[in-house]
Structures are given as structure tokens and as C-alpha cells.
Amino acid sequence: MSWLLLLWIALSNNAFGLSLPAIGWIHLVALGWFTMTALSVLLFAIPQMADQPWRFETAARAALGWFAFGVVLFVLALFAATRLIGAAAGLTYAALIVYLLTAWTTLVGRRAAERAERAIARAFFVTLSLLAVVATLGLVLALSLSGIGFGSWSARLAAAHGNLALFGWLSLLVYGVSTRTIRPITGVKPSTLAHVVVGSATLLGAVVLAGALVAGNAAATWTGGALLGLGAIVYGADMTRSLARATVRHRPPQAFVAASIAWLFVALLAGTSALAGHATANAYGFVMLAGWIGQMVNAHMFHIGVRVIATVYRGQDDETPPEALLDERFEWAAFGCFQAAVALVAIGLWKTSAPLVVSGACFGVAGWGGLIAALGLARSRAMDTP
Predict the structure, then answer these.
(1) pLDDT (tens digit, 9 = 90+) per residue, 314-357?
(2) Which residues, at least 6 apart from 133, have a Cβ–Cβ distance to it below 8 Å?
(3) How far is the C-alpha of 257 from the C-alpha of 253, rounded, in Å?
(4) In angstroms, what CA-CA distances link 103 with 31, 34, 69?
(5) In terms of DSSP H, where are the helices of the chain?
(6) Per-residue pLDDT tens for 360-383?
(7) What CA–CA distance (Å, rounded) separates 108 from 123?
(8) Nearest residue to 179 via CA among 231, 239, 244
(9) What is the number of other CB atoms lying within 10 angstroms of the CB of residue 356?
């Protein structure tokens, strides 16, 4: 839906500036794709990684359903019913808070035996708390869009809301989860010291940047940006080390990881340019979402996702490697299409060229087709139990 919506937005010349359709696209990706995926996966990841059985799981699963419904209503309201934006955002927010309450109760409900598991529980608690802050800021902005005023200061929250979502929620989550998932993808364990530096710099940087944007403090804004840059550089260096030493022979997921890191650095350059006053904010936001986070998600789909498919159909003890269920032609086709899509749309947003954005969106749809074809084949092969 995100690539098709982007295609429609570009064809209708709404791709430039912060139009309501553009805001709808951003939230379709950030909420409907990434956050929904993350919250679903965390239902399994938190009990396994933090050694904490999920409490009130039925309520959490029900809240996820209402969250999905709220996101759909919110995106539709941005296109067709402005007066309903606040109500749709309120439903999404309420569902998210119910989910978060069950998650927080789980994370503090019982002290894990191992020190590492206690540290993981704390990290999840902090990351989910930042998501709550992001959602609260978003609700205020949504109510403002629907006509409920909170004063002129609410307009300054948009940049803080967006950057806190990109780094304090999504990037911080990716940084943390990938310390566990990059090992099966590459065969190399990431550096624990690097993880501490990355997490600390990103957490502090996201909070400082968001606060500085609201306060209009230029020095603090650049300080927050520098901390985020430090975290990204250390993370990129550590992931590059893991990729260079990779022992796993299944290369497409590793290529997606490498592309994701490359797009993260491109996004940082675009973000720095935006802070300096240049018109690169649209390209920055798109590359952060579709390039950095999107390609990292794709990397996990082609490895962790296929392993999930295998265990669903062959049992939890199945050890079939992902490459045995996949066809690399589909994987590489998806990889090429997705990178072309990100590049073309980013350049199109930078140059305000609608034809480039249209071309990029078409490549994005083609990349999605390759992804679905690959996963469909994996499912078919997994069902053919040896």
C-alpha cells in the first residue's frame, strides 16, 4: 500500500512539502508497516530475549487489532475526512496505550535471573516509553489538524515528533534488536561495547534533539544531531565489521543490511543539510523510512522471516537454512528494485521532480512483487515437508 500510495501522491503532485497526503504516507509506513510489525514481533521477542512471560497477552493482541484499525482510519481521514483525524488518532492512541501497559507490566513484573536479560528488559522498557512520548506528541498534532487548537506552540512539535519517532523509537529499536538478529544473518557476533555506545548516544541524542527543536535552541539542536550521528557511525562500523567477516553464505540478506547502513549515512547527510537550512527534509524523512529502516526490515524478512515460515510448517525443531527455501533470483531482483526505488524517490524529492518519484514508486512496487514471490515460494517449499 505504501508504494502504491506514493505513486498516487506523485502523480497528483502532492509529493512535495508536508501535505496531508504526504503525512498519510509517512504514517502508513511508520505506523502501519514498521510499528505494527515491531509490536507483533515483540509479543514473541520480549518473552524470549528478556526471559519474561507476557502478561495480559490477550489484551495486547486485541489492542493490536484495534491499533491496525485505527491506523487505517487515520490515514483515510488525512485524505478524505479532516474532521475525523482527531478521532482516528485517539482510537489508535488508546489501543497503543493498552498494548504498552501490558508490555510495561510484563517488563517490570518479574526480575530476570541473568544480568543480560535484565539489561534487555530495561532497554525494551525505555524504547517503548519513548514510543509513548512519540504517540502523545502525535495525538496533540492530530487534534490540532482536526480543529482542536492547543496554541501556536503545537506547530513546533511536528519536527520533534518526527525525529523522536525516527531515532528514539524506530532506530533505537533496530539498533537493539539487531544485536541479536545480525548473528544468524552473518555468523558474527556484534560488539557489546559498540552496542552500549550506540544505544547511549542515540537515546540521549534523540531526547536532546527533540527538546531543542521545540525550544528553538540551535546549539542544542546541533548537539543532539551530533550524538545521533555518533551512534549511527559506531553502529555502521560494527555492522560493516560483521558483514566483512560473515561466515553465512546466504548473501542477499547481508546485501540488504549493507544497503540499509549506506542509506542511514545518506539520511544523516540529508538531515544535516536540513538543519543547515537547506530544503532536504523530505528526502531525509523518506530515506530514513524506506532506505535505512525499510531495507533492514527486508534483510530480516529474507532470513529471520523465512526461518519463521520454516518452523510454522515444519515444527520448532526444524533447522532448514533460508537459502534452501528461497530462489536467489527473486531475492536479488527485489534487492535491485528496492535500491533503485529509494534512490529515485530520494533524488526526486531533492530535485522536486515528480517523474523521478513516479519512477521510484514503480520500482518499489516491483520490489514488493519480488519480495512476495520469494516468500511465497519459501512457503510452498516449506509446506512440502521432507
Answers:
(1) 888 888 899 999 999 999 999 999 999 999 999 999 998 999 99
(2) 164, 168
(3) 6
(4) 18, 18, 20
(5) 2-11, 20-27, 36-49, 57-80, 85-109, 115-145, 157-163, 172-186, 192-215, 218-244, 251-275, 281-286, 294-300, 306-314, 322-325, 328-351, 354-383
(6) 999 999 999 999 999 999 999 999
(7) 12
(8) 239
(9) 20
